[in-house]
Amino acid sequence: xxxxxxxxxxxxxxxxxxxxxxxxxxxxxxxxxxxxxxxxxxxxxxxxxxxxxxxxxxxxxxxxxxxxxxxxxxxxxxxxxxxxxxxxxxxxxxxxxxxxxxxxxxxxxxxxxxxxxxxxxxxxxxxxxxxxxxxxxxxxxxxxxxxxxxxxxxxxxxxxxxxxxxxxxxxxxxxxxxxxxxxxxxxxxxxxxxxxxxxxxxxxxxxxxxxxxxxxxxxxxxxxxxxxxxxxxxxxxxxxxxxxxxxxxxxxxxxxxxxxxxxxxxxxxxxxxxxxxxxxxxxxxxxxxxxxxxxxxxxxxxxx
Length: 304
Fold this sequence. Notes:
Blueprint: H1 2-24, H2 101-112, H3 124-129, E1 167-175, E2 199-209, H4 214-224, E3 229-234, E4 239-245, E5 248-249, E6 258-263, E7 282-288
Parallel strand pairs: 1-7
Antiparallel strand pairs: 1-2, 3-4, 4-5, 6-7
């Protein structure tokens, strides 16, 4: 018993020494960041912040914008012959579609009004005497040409022409002064091409050869004067069709615009490849904005 008592006393003494050293060394609670009087801070496990669910905004029902006004199907009002050209009265098709041949003729008649330019009525009897093969049913020849007026030359088919080396003289000119009165209709990119006086080639006396046509003359003189020319062959009319001169083309100044020719004051009712030149002829190429009404080349009707 005495043996165990000594061991117990020795163990108690060791514990007392260790406790004293612990307190003396500063490891007691409160001396290294912990205050025994303060309540322990209980750290709760990290809880992710509750997401606040934002209710979706009510779906916006977009109101349809006002429907665009339907394009008017009415034909444009025709410009009177003495009325200035404006964008509003520029000839155009329905709903921006090109005018048909019939619509162009109807519009030209409206532009001409009650007093169209004087025209020479064709004569079947005279035309047949001049060699035109007029179909009694259609009133036209095989190339859709109506009878020529009395005193005017009948067409000569290019394949029948015989060109010789016999030289003659005639006069030729090219002008587009009608555009100056209709600048509001002109393609803006073509404005600089229009001469101030509208004259592209002034009246010029030139040489031609017997058997040549107005077309032969035009091709040679445009090349000689370095003036642009573009044309296509139109078999249905057995003639060349002039699309553009001096880079001014058909439709550049409205849907009724394009090139026409007249000889000695008369606008032939057939293509320039079929008009055989005669000594002293005065050939004029003119640009029209109103299917001939503005240059005196509109024909309201044919003859007998």
